[in-house]
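Question thread 4412

I'm putting together a teaching handout and wanted feedback from people who do this every day. The idea is simple: show students a protein as raw sequence, then show them the structure tokens that encode its fold, then repeat with a second protein so they can compare. Below is the first pair exactly as I plan to print it.
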Amino acid sequence: MGVKRRYAVIGAGIIGAAVARGLLARCDDAEVTLYEKEDRPAAHQTGHNSGVIHAGLYYEPGSLKARLCRRGVSLLLDFAREHSVPFDECGKIVVATDEVEVERLHAIHRRSLANGVPEVALLDAEELREVEPNAVGLAALHSPHTGIIDYRALTEALVADFRRGGGRVRFSTAVDRVEERGGRSIVRSESDAHEYDQVIACTGLQSDRLAARSGEDRDPAVVPFFGQYFILDPEYDDIVNGLIYPVPDPRYPFLGVHVTRRIDGGVMLGPNAFLSFSREGYRGLGFNLPDSLRIAANPGFWRFAAGNIATARREIAGVVSSEKFVEEAARYVPKLAGANGHRATRGIRAQAMNRDGSLVDDFVIDRRRATMFVRNAPSPGATSALAIAERLIDEVTGVTGTTGVTGD
């Protein structure tokens, strides 16, 4: 038996877990170590999202995002079935409430068809009521195979499968930096240093900081945005059959509040999107002084803020008032007006931002000889995780998977 190639993956969110498992499965000669600074997987973005399995409605046809999403759905559902992770293809409708939105809805329909989203269809007002009796609108787009899942449970299953295959997991081990020496990478943690043939860093909210400490460019920098969720009281559990979204407004960088079924049978509203003063503050004020100072020192953020005052005004109402939050969703599900519930733990999105204030909308990967840094993996990152992993493994091994997504 030859000498095993040693790999390290940093970050046990869904992408890092998928990469570690995939390396072990793909490479017979692999010895793989997964580093995670917390004491469990999926502690940050993966464990605080809406749980939606996106079908690929919105993305530019032929784009890497579109292809990774469609490939990712297939891989994700296959893994979930094999490992008994519950999911539900409950379906999704995108509701247009005026003629301008109807026009935008037709454009989304064209994109979804080009992306190969299965059985997607335009509905008139009557057909909309047949799918979602409590929703109102002039028209809607129906994606019957959009689904929901518990991404934390899925990530835990990925890590368990990785361990069964002989992978090593180092929880509670924060990585300080990655150095290169003699064509190999050295992972330096707070307690020790180990050398590897290849390192892949999938560190989400901390991706720019680890990259900068490792000698990479500070940009694109991560600017955190939090999303609040409002879980409705059990009496509203049957108010929708699936997911109900508004038509995206191109003036705003985020989708807007939507109604989402949960895998536990409940219903929640959200998320909204507003600047977070902490990268990992999920409760209370969520204020962290170093994180806030880093935002204030980012010239790209101030350029973004200056161009998105209208967005901030729209979103702040839902941040300070649950009633406004519910009111937003009641525009297309009127029976939600005055609904009771409670706020859930917020999510925080790692949004990469350029120095000119523009949001980075695509995947960003920095590659040195023996180190790869995933700098941005925006939505649908969780849905696409196993396809992203497949692509990263293709690149580091130099061997293309027979069913993988290749090309740009």
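The second pair follows. I'd like the answer to focus on this one:
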Amino acid sequence: MNPVALITGAASGVGKHLASTLIERGYRLMLTDIQEEALRAAFPSSETVQTRRLDIRSAEEWERLLGETLHLFGRLDYLFNIAGVVLPAFLLNTTREEIDRQIDTNLKGTVYGTHLAARIMSHQGHGHIINMASLAGVAPIPGMEAYTASKFGVRGFSLAAGIALREKGVHVTVICPDLIDTPMLDVQLQRPDESALAFATSRPLRVEQVTQAILHAMERKPLEVTLPVSRGLLAKLGNAIPALGPFLYRYLRQRGLQRAARLASRR
């Protein structure tokens, strides 16, 4: 039987491209998103591809959907926690609602899904969970403090869970990409001051590049993948010496503002 995978955030961006790729490869899929109309427009339901609305902030919805996935397909081989949200804002201007939404969606949603899927997979004796973090989970992004907190949490949680679950036959991989050309990029372009450091790289990643990294991770099952590798190494180096942060911020912020302006002019 072909593998079974559940993908969150499948209505757009990386989740949508990954879903299309796995459909071509014959996977049986449960595709989810909070944007139900967009999801159903992108992927009509069939015997092998099912679409459902899922608010990943709700543990109860996770339990219901995973139970339905097992009922329809009999097992769960992969969980891809792709769904996420970014609300750029300097800490002093961040609202309580913005904090809650990013922590609840990015961090708690990933923890809920991983926790419940890992129970199923450990009972099976196999499974692979791939969680989407960010390079903002490797090195901090001033101006996006709440988002940074959520992605640091996703990365730390995934690494810890990945080590603990391996003896159960369950693998966890955390993907930490740089800025990706998805609808989330447009949100950041609307707040260039707050998002300046996110634009300090040469160009955003394409969804195809991220999907390819995920496919490679499915084969190799590493604990962590950074994209691109060079930026990941720089992020880890910069974060290893926090005292450099204020000096790097001034330089990278100006560079990011310039690149964000050029990118906005071309969209």
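Top answer:
Good format. For the second protein you could add a caption like this: The chain has ten helices and seven strands. The chain has one domain: 4-183+203-231.
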